[in-house]
Write a structure and sequence with these properties.
Shape: globular
Number of helices: 5
Distance between the termini: 39 Å
Radius of gyration: 13 Å
Structural class: alpha/beta
Number of strands: 7
Strand content: 25-35%
């Protein structure tokens, strides 16, 4: 059982999401197929991780197998919530098709993907940018 720092409410990992803390960041590790079903499951946990002042969040896509527009909406939602609250959002992604989607939509310029969790947490220039 995991403890969410923002609410103190215990959460279990789900088939599509694991949440943990690492180096002062809340890491949302997406898993499997990120589609509308997964997005429905993930949204409340994403909102919980991004609701406080100056949230520090990493979305880790290294364990995904599929990623559609529902996943993009989750990333845009997280980015907007984090920026509105003066926080930092970082992204981990190595999946070739997902990287292509991120480049095609322009999201890779706003949220530069890193190759690993260590890279995302160790590089200050990997924070969410602007166009």
């Amino acid at each position: 059982m995991q403890q969410e720092p923002a609410t103190g409410t215990p959460h279990r990992d789900t088939p599509h999401l694991r949440v943990h803390q690492d180096r002062g960041y809340t890491v949302l590790e997406f898993r499997g197929e990120i589609d509308i079903v997964a997005a429905t499951e993930i949204t409340a946990r994403l909102d919980d991780a991004t609701k406080g002042p100056a949230p520090r969040v990493v979305i880790d896509l290294s364990r995904i197998e599929f990623f559609d527009c529902s996943g993009l909406r989750l990333l845009y939602r997280a980015r907007g919530r984090v920026l509105d609250r003066g926080g930092r959002l970082r992204l981990v992604c190595t999946h070739p098709l997902t990287l292509r989607i991120l480049r095609t939509t322009g999201l890779s310029r706003l949220l530069p993907p890193q190759a690993s969790l260590d890279a995302a947490l160790g590089r200050p220039e990997a924070t969410s940018g602007t166009l």
